[in-house]
From TrEMBL:
Lineage: Bacteria, Bacillati, Bacillota, Bacilli, Bacillales
Primary localization class, coarse: membrane
Keywords recorded for this protein, A-Z: Lipoprotein, Membrane, Palmitate, Signal
The name this protein goes by in its record: Lipoprotein
Subcellular location: Membrane
SUPFAM superfamilies cross-referenced by the UniProt entry: Periplasmic binding protein-like II (SSF53850)
Covalently lipidated residues, kind S-diacylglycerol cysteine: C20
């Protein structure tokens, strides 16, 4: 009887240790879905800093704007890194995702590119501007033209909340083509198919375009609501591993890396 009890005790202890080992390993691994540039590049720089804290960072590169939130909501990722607050709010509202922000990391100033004109004021009447099919950024596109005095919006509508339907005055009858995904815009620009193209900085950088040097106008970073964030499932932003991830991404080492590598095309969030 004593031998049976001892054997049972050993088996129970082995199972407990195995469970602890597996749970511990999972808790020490952080799986993040991210856009290739600059998100995945920033995470690669964060890897050794997280290793120093005892965490293994796994990066899954995803080159579109629909998959990361879907995977996060299903629990296949611990976090994702590709979006800003207006996009997250829209995606949650449209698809019912139970995800939230764990904090901002950086801003990618969006820019307008043209191979035909040197400024927005040079655009001809009836000019076509190619933009992405992302409804959460319609106001962001329009702000360039509002700031230049070319377009007016409905009274009381903030640019970040605006849609194309909120345009009340359009002096040059500017047309917005939003039939394509954001990743195709650099190709449209290179093929000279448009009067101008508004490109997200991550896709611009990926195609060796500099928002500061190659664009005709670049978005201002001050008071900008479009900082890119780390998203997690609701109720998990205070998890130890997510807090460790945010500490590293907010560290001086990462901020210095962003400033040096991207030369103003990406700036640390404030």
């Amino acid at each position: 009887m004593k031998k049976l009890f001892s054997l049972a005790s050993v088996l129970v202890l082995a199972l407990v240790l195995a469970a602890c080992g597996n749970g511990g390993g999972k808790d020490k691994t952080i799986t993040v879905g991210a856009s290739p540039a600059p998100h995945a590049e920033i995470l690669e720089k964060a890897k050794p800093l997280l290793e120093d804290k005892g965490y293994n960072l796994k990066i899954k590169t995803i080159n579109d704007y629909t998959t990361p939130n879907k995977l996060l909501n299903k629990g296949e990722l611990d976090a994702n890194f590709f979006q800003h607050t207006p996009y997250l709010k829209t995606d949650k509202k449209d698809k019912g995702y139970k995800i939230e922000s764990a904090g901002n990391v950086h801003l990618e100033p969006m820019a307008v590119y043209s191979k035909k004109y040197k400024s927005l004021k040079d655009l001809p009447k009836g000019a076509t501007i190619y933009v992405s099919n992302n409804p959460a950024e319609e106001g962001r596109f329009l702000k360039f033209f509002v700031d230049e005095g070319l377009i007016k919006l409905k009274k009381g509508v903030k640019p970040e909340d605006a849609t194309f339907k909120d345009i009340t005055e359009n002096k040059k009858d500017i047309k917005f083509n939003n039939k394509q995904s954001a990743e195709y815009l650099p190709k449209i620009y290179q093929n000279q198919k448009a009067d101008a193209v508004i490109i997200n900085s991550n896709f611009a950088i990926d195609q060796k375009l500099s928002p500061q040097k190659d664009s005709i106008v670049v978005e201002k970073s001050k008071d900008n609501p479009y900082a890119n964030l780390i998203a997690v499932k609701e109720g998990h932003k205070d998890d130890k591993k997510i807090k460790a991830l945010m500490e590293v991404l907010h560290s001086k080492e990462i901020k210095d890396y962003i400033n040096k590598k991207y030369d103003g095309a990406v700036v640390p969030a404030k």
